[in-house]
Amino acid sequence: MRLIDKVKMAFGVEDDSLHLRPLKNKDLPDILRIEDSVYDYPWSEQIFKDCLAMGYSNWGLHSEGQLIAYAILSIAVGEAHVLNICIDPDKQGQGFGRMFLQELFKVAKEKGAESIFLEVRPTNKGAIVLYKKLGFTQIGQRKNYYPVEGGREDALVFSYSFD
Ligand SMILES: CC(C)(COP(=O)(O)OP(=O)(O)OC[C@H]1O[C@@H](n2cnc3c(N)ncnc32)[C@H](O)[C@@H]1OP(=O)(O)O)[C@@H](O)C(=O)NCCC(=O)NCCS
To answer: 86 CB under 6 A from ligand 1?
Structure first.
């Protein structure tokens, strides 16, 4: 079965305009527009270029030809690490984040991951709610991980095991 058909099944979507595709350099303007509008400390264009060049598992979700979400995963030695996941602000709160992550679970599993990890700001309540609803549990905390106005804040480390 083609990946896009799996996505549509997973998403319960009958809309043929929804597509999951590996990110390409031509997606960079849309990625940066979303990234800059969502994060106080967005990744730079160079970071995304490096991720694309390094062959990470880079995915974009397109609706009606428009990029509405992207995710960067590093998958190696049985572990997947979500380095970035972001939904266009206009599309947040509509179920895309949950569905996108569930699809990324499958991609990670197919590439041999047994577990999936991510870091999140303690202040990012919406993301934490989503991760917990999907079965992630907090396994640790990284000190002074993220920049924040006037200093740094810790990251909460969450993991999900495919067992
Ligand atoms: C966090 C993020 C990925 C969630 O995606 P989303 O599409 O907005 O979330 P969904 O609509 O799929 O919601 C999924 C679930 O999480 C819950 N949720 C999502 N955002 C929430 C919020 N701000 N407050 C409370 N619950 C929230 C919803 O209640 C929903 O539960 P349900 O499926 O049982 O109804 C998205 O908001 C985003 O890209 N935020 C900016 C970037 C970011 O913070 N990325 C994560 C960095 S670690």
So the answer is: yes
